[in-house]
Specification:
Blueprint lengths: L13 H8 L4 H9 L4 E4 L6 H15 L5 E5 L4 H9 L3 E4 L5 H5 L6 E4 L11 H18 L4 E7 L6 E2 L15 H20 L4 E7 L1 E2 L5 H11 L3 E2 L4 E2 L2 E2 H10 L9 E6 L4 E2 H12 L5 E2 L5 E2 L5 H7 L6 H13 L19
Parallel strand pairs: 1-2, 1-4, 2-3, 4-5, 5-7, 7-12, 8-11, 9-14
Antiparallel strand pairs: 6-15, 10-13
Helix pairs in contact: 2-3, 2-9, 3-9, 6-7, 8-10, 8-12, 9-11, 10-12
Length: 348
């Protein structure tokens, strides 16, 4: 189960991709066997939510655990609801900033909080703070008897020297820009309510999730394919397979604490933009052009604690690169959502 991958270096289509992204590890199955009660995923309509919900459903079924897995999304279209339902997951449409709609959500002892705003935050700073800071407080007051795993970001650390091991959980935050500051605000709110209402919480600082349709690796592959110059100022990054991030997220439900556990969810390697782009150039048979020079710092996280607690990634960067290159050559679809990982001024 934990070692299952497609044969060769090709993932056939979106259905096979999402099947792989939702493949539970043995550790996730054991977590779902030990946990009691339903799983409620807030913000399930984004890039990660659908396959995370499916993984929770599949792991619960394999564990023989009877529970509801319920996704909540602000834009839950009938088509999206049908897709979730086809995989045994309920989907509720809800604007969680509306107190009445939030109050109407079902109770659940296990809550995963994914609702957030990043892209488009510049120019919509008020909404960014409402979604990233005010809403977490509303959720804590609505689910004071639940355990909560909440997503955060490695951006709260600020940039780390590229010749080091990356930011660790005990490093003081140095957020830059409204997005990173509001994400630290989200953490502070969860910390406050965790201590005042005794809510066990885990805060996952993600950096960066990748699949074939989205992620830093996909961005670089698309730029190489299009013949665009690769900007090198943000010269290094972390990358983790989204399926592995899903698995770590679900396993974190057993590691919540008061005050909250803070843990990085990040790839194990410090990756060079230049070297990854050159690998894509060889696989895609395209020349690679660069602009700028690597800076001495970048958003880099140390994922060692996360591996100790939540399991080691199952998919290597080398495998991701080969899958993504093949996907690009075959004209596979993308989500059309660039990561803007090159951003160094905090403006998203």
């Amino acid at each position: 189960m934990s070692k299952r991958t497609p044969s060769g270096d090709s993932i056939g289509d979106v259905a096979e991709l999402e099947q792989l992204l939702s493949e539970p590890s043995e550790g996730v199955v054991e977590t779902m066997r030990r946990l009691e009660g339903d799983v409620l995923v807030l913000g399930a309509g984004g890039k990660i939510g659908p396959t995370l919900c499916r993984m929770a459903r599949r792991a619960s079924d394999l564990a023989g655990a009877e529970r509801r897995v319920i996704g909540v999304a602000r834009r839950a279209t009938p088509e999206m609801q049908a897709e979730f339902h086809a995989h045994g997951v309920e989907l509720i449409r809800c604007d969680m900033l509306d107190h009445r709609q939030l109050a109407a959500l079902p109770n659940a002892p296990n809550v995963i909080y994914m609702a957030a705003m990043k892209f488009g935050s510049t120019g919509q700073e008020a909404l960014t703070w409402a979604l990233n800071v005010y809403l977490p407080g509303m959720v804590c007051e609505r689910f004071p008897r639940s355990r909560i795993v909440a997503f955060s970001t490695g951006n709260v650390y600020g940039m780390a020297p590229v010749d080091g091991d990356g930011s660790v959980e005990g490093d003081p935050p140095r957020p830059d820009g409204d997005y990173a500051m509001s994400c630290l605000g989200r953490e502070r709110i969860f910390n406050h309510f965790s201590q005042t209402l005794k809510i066990p919480v885990a805060l996952l600082r993600l950096n960066y999730a990748n699949e074939l349709r989205y992620g830093v690796l996909g961005d670089l592959a698309q730029q190489v394919m299009a013949g665009e110059p690769i900007e090198l100022r943000m010269g290094y990054f972390n990358a983790i397979w989204q399926g592995d991030a899903n698995a770590m997220t679900l396993r974190a439900l057993e590691h919540v604490a008061t005050p909250p556990l803070v843990v990085n969810v990040a790839g194990p390697d410090r990756l060079s933009v230049r070297q990854i782009a050159e690998q894509f150039g060889l696989l895609l048979e395209r020349p690679v052009r660069f602009s700028g020079r690597e800076a001495v710092d970048a958003f880099l996280s140390n994922g060692r604690l996360g591996y100790e607690l939540l399991g080691h990634p199952r998919v290597s960067v080398e495998q991701m690169v080969r899958w993504i290159a093949d996907w690009q050559l075959r004209g596979g679809p993308t989500l059309g959502k660039p990561t803007h990982f090159q951003t160094r001024d905090g403006k998203f």
